[in-house]
Amino acid sequence: MKRIFLTLAILANVTMLAALVMGLQIGDPMTLGGRDPDVNRWIGNHILVGLFALTSVTMVHALLFTYFMGTGRWIEETSAAYKLPPQFHNANQKLKYGILPGIMFTFLMALGTGCCGAVADPATAASLTSWTGVSDSVLHFAMAIATWCVNLLVNFTQYFRIAGNSTIVEAVLAEVRRIRLERGLPVDDAT
User: Fold this and answer.
1) Sheet strands (E) in the chain
2) Measured distance CA(91)–CA(84) in Å, rounded
């Protein structure tokens, strides 16, 4: 799972970075009264890549949480079947619920970045400038940078939690192997 997660997390972060760089390339959206085809093309591409980045980040976090749910269920059922101590399941639960705040915070930040982008569009009547004291485009850019940095940090911690969970799974497999050997039951050599 570590390799799969690492690959997908890198792709999602590259997509976020691409959306950020594309946003910087837009220039003045009010060129030619907002009708400059080059600027509008950059805006459209930026929105599409930004939505893809939001979807990618969400899918990576959802996949990770699904992985923890699946291994947690497997550890729970295996522990019940072989009467293993609850320490394995408890350690998995701690890891699983430890990643949940980071997932939610990153998702809300990514969603907030998109909302700030919608407000930064000069075609909209909404503005947060009176609340924040900065222009909407600067707010959107600051949110994009902050979201990307937070996502990198959360992905970094998630990677190590996956490693910790792998250790738990290996310990459960070793304990099951030991019990099966003690009872004279067949043991798969791959475990």
Assistant:
1) none
2) 13
Residue 17 phi/psi, 5° resolution?
-65, -40
Rounded to 5 degrees, φ, ψ at 170 are: -65, -40
Q: Where are the domains of the chain?
A: 57-182
Listed residue (68, 153, 164, 156) closest to 105, CA to CA: 153
> What are 29-42's pLDDT values in tens digits?
887 877 888 888 99
> How far is the CA of 145 from the CAs of 18, 138, 148, in angstroms?
12, 11, 5
User: Residue 159 corresponds to which tokens in the numbers above?
Assistant: 């990677």
pTM of the model: 0.87
The DSSP 8-state label assigned to residue 27 in this structure reads: -
Read off the tokens for 65: 């949480």
